[in-house]
What does this fold into?
Amino acid sequence: MLKVLVIGSGGREHALAWRLAQAGSVETVYVAPGNAGTAADKRLTNLPITDLEELRDWALANAIDLTVVGPEAPLAKGVVNLFRASGLTIFGPTKEAAQLESSKDFAKNFMKRKGIPTADYETFTDCEAAHAYINAKGAPIVIKADGLAAGKGVVVAMTLDEAHAAVDDMLGGHKFGNAGARVVIEEFLTGEEASFIVMVDGKNVLPMASSQDHKRLLDADQGPNTGGMGAYSPAPVVTRDVHEQVMREIIEPTVRGMAEDGIEYTGFLYAGLMVGRDAEGRTTVKTLEFNCRMGDPETQPIMSRIKGDFAQTLLAAAKGELAGVTLEWDDRAALGVVLAAKGYPEAPEKGAVITGLFDEDDAHVVFHAGTKTAEDGSILVSGGRVLCVVGLGDNITAAQKAAYEAAAKIHFDGMQMRSDIGYRAIAREAS
Ligand code: AMP
Ligand code: GLY
It folds into this structure.
């Protein structure tokens, strides 16, 4: 029986831990540091350690069989290198491989060299040169902080004024600190987005079910970019043909290209896609970004649909033994709605009391993210994205209904929630 450690504290980690705890081969799942939801789940044990060396020592002392890493920050800091050096089994990319996410410039340069389809771009550290490039290219245009900025370092500028202001903020005003000391400026792409997440063991690739998230704060994809306000799986835009095209044009060349460069990729690999059309009407798939981890909130609907013993899949992936491994999926669709704190994403307010939480059943689950348990046992808001309520149903329309019915039971002061998660998929289902 396996002892598993999940690193992180968000909704993604709650969903991973929740699914792993149901695996037949798992004895215990520890979550470090976890949240109020993982604390309340009797199958999970929170571990109040965030220092990576301390975590490694704890994993060694407690004979942890498998570690899986949720967020990008510990990956970019080299948690996989650290654990592996001590002989521990961990699933995730090394610090070097995680640059596919931790540096937009690294990722764009890699894609250019390997012929992987993505938006045309230039990288800048100099304000004046960036302004001149924007004037030459015109709007709309996209400005991205080079480093990690929790999904918020991207400005899709519809006007020249917005584009210049974004450059001033990042390069001049140091809005994202070091992460924004270098910016990537790229061509604006049109089409429909999807999240394409696979497991990679260095050589072999095992695709997860497709998914799609909504990154903007407000309905109709308006307002500022966030980490994600909701997601669903499967994503109908990823048809069988699109799936094959993405594997052939993006995923396989990426895994092969990293190995060619001497940076073997292991871990979840997430390609943010723009699915569009060229002038001749042929379908195009372009990479908007790579993430070196699963998506949040995409993981919540994906884990809600995965069947079988996921710990064994992760173990095979961590050991380079993914060849021939398959995944089984619930035929139902799953849709997750994020309940966010007042002030998110700019300045989330903490401390509001959450009421109306309910027990999961076969068609509804609540995953926690920014929550903590107060001394009197009540559950409080402690971060920007607070909860993700997942509903399952025969199609996206039914899953959406289940998710919103469940979300309506929950309340906290200032709660923000989009009312239209899944609208594109639902329009497809209606037509
Ligand atoms: P990223 O973090 O790079 O995925 O960017 C966040 C969001 O900004 C994406 O999900 C898209 O909605 C949007 N975006 C990023 N790059 C582009 C682009 N080149 N063209 C249009 N929209 C983009
Ligand atoms: N939902 C987008 C991300 O995890 O990056």
